[in-house]
Amino acid sequence: MSVAEKLSTTENSFGIDNVKSLQKVNEDVLFIHDLREVSNLSTIRMEYNTFVYCRGGRILVEIGGDTQIKVKPGQLLLVPAGKLVQPMMISADIDAHALLLTEKILKSALGNQLDIWNKAMYMKETYIVKETGWLEGVAEYSQKIFPNDKEPKLYNEMVFAFLRMLLLLLCEELMRSNTMFHSSDSSTIHDKVLFNQFLLHLSQQEQKRQKVSFYADKLNITPKYLSTITKRVSGKNPMRWITESVMDDCYRLLTSTDLSVKEISNRLGFPNSSFFGQYFRNEAGMTPMEYRTGHKRWS
Considering the entire predicted model, what is its pTM? Predict the structure, then answer.
């Protein structure tokens, strides 16, 4: 089964099953030359980090169930893997293309700079890169490095080099425009490595609502130490990260599937639907059905 076929059969389909301009580099890299061909933008999720460059028109999306983002021409929309994206408005004159990368290729290309990406995406929630001097040029070049017909012999090496350059430029831009990177940071490289591993384990769990000790065991450290480094690196304790990740799954299943509240409760590992309803209400300020009803019009 191809990547496009695999995606089209999942509840998180990017709607790319019939996209003629889809370029599959390998299992880790997908490129869509023309976003107008995408038939269903109901969700952008699963294992892909998504980069959407808007050259013309307007896009309005909701990320994580509660944050509205406007994307204007010349801007780059960044969506980390695991984040629910709900389209609210895509103008008829949209001119945009999208790059989709797995966590594996993102980590490989960024190397030691992965912490910059994680800070910007998961802590600061920076989803837009505004017009810069290099963005248009890189976007133009991306149309050439992801050809639809003839591939050069060193194609994979060229693609990886391009991705590393793009991601490093993004990290540099995120650091320049974000005051959080200029503040004092007492965390060590070892702390950041463990924190990134914690986020990775969290993203890979189907039932994320686990005790802190569950994730600490996977890292071979104590729950107390995990709490210490997570707080030191991100300013939030691991339980807060777990809760936010659980809620991302709640939002996704409520808006992108027809599963009942009871079925969603069972899938996410809650003891019963009543407990799930109270948990959701405490975090979202409304019941699961109220949230689903309010977001149906964007499906």
Answer: 0.68
